[in-house]
Amino acid sequence: MTHTTDLTTLTADTKQLAERVQAAIPVTSWQQINERTALPPLPELERLLLQAERTLTPCGREAATTVATMLLGCYPSVKAHNPEAYVRGVVSVLQDLPLDIAWQTVDVVTRNVRFLPTRSELHQTAQDLLKPRRAMCDLLRAARREAQRRATQPPKRAPTPVDPQTAAEQFSEIKRIIASVARAMTDDNRS
Predict the structure, then answer these.
(1) Predicted model pTM
(2) Rounded to whole angstroms, how far apart are CA atoms 127 and 98?
(3) Domain limits of the chain?
(4) pLDDT tens readout for residues 73-96
(5) pLDDT attached to residue 31
(6) Residue-wise DSSP of the chain
């Protein structure tokens, strides 16, 4: 049962991280980050990205074997054709997942699949569970790129405001020039 405590802590830490990222970057997709997006300082982005990438750390073969054994135990009346090969195949999928995602994958599959799941079913379930974490990492990477760009490039200058009197004078001058060109073209066409 030590996995339950670790799993709860991992999941809670990941949720807290996601909430901090959401508070720091007020957009939901990396595609929405641009020069107008409010961003935290670059060191804070680096810390958040490092923490987010850690949530994707694979659990490894030993932990995956424990999770795979639990999966097999959830189907007591089903006998795999070759249990050792099945467990090796399941481990090959689970070992590349973070530990809490591996456990969640088994939980989701055992609740929804009546028969011993295939590697493909496990893989697809795991990928669906990983999407939010990958999206969080993509968002932080895009924010870091934008923050780095801002640090190395001067900000774009806003247009210099023109007072209304000057603008009216410039507009009158442009109208006069257009009228003059139009008269000249009309005179050329008559000749």
Answers:
(1) 0.71
(2) 11
(3) 2-152, 165-191
(4) 898 877 778 888 999 999 999 999
(5) 80
(6) -HHHHHHHHHHHHHHHHHHHHHHHS--SSGGG--TTS----HHHHHHHHHHHHHTT----HHHHHHHHHHHHHT-TT---SSHHHHHHHHHHHHTTS-HHHHHHHHHHHHHH-SSPPPHHHHHHHHHHHHHHHHHHHHHHHHHHHHHHHHHHSPPPPPPPP--HHHHHHHHHHHHHHHHHHHHHHHHHHH-
- The size of the chain, in residues, is 191
Distance CA 140, CA 22 (A): 10
Which pairs with CB-CB distance under 8 Å and at least 24 residues apart come from 116-119?
116/72, 116/75, 116/78, 116/80, 116/86, 117/71, 119/89, 119/90, 119/92, 119/93
Tell me how far apart the alpha carbons of residues 133 and 14 are, in angstroms, rounded to a whole number.
9
Tokens coding 186: 């009309």
Q: Which two tokens stand for residue 7?
A: 């799993």
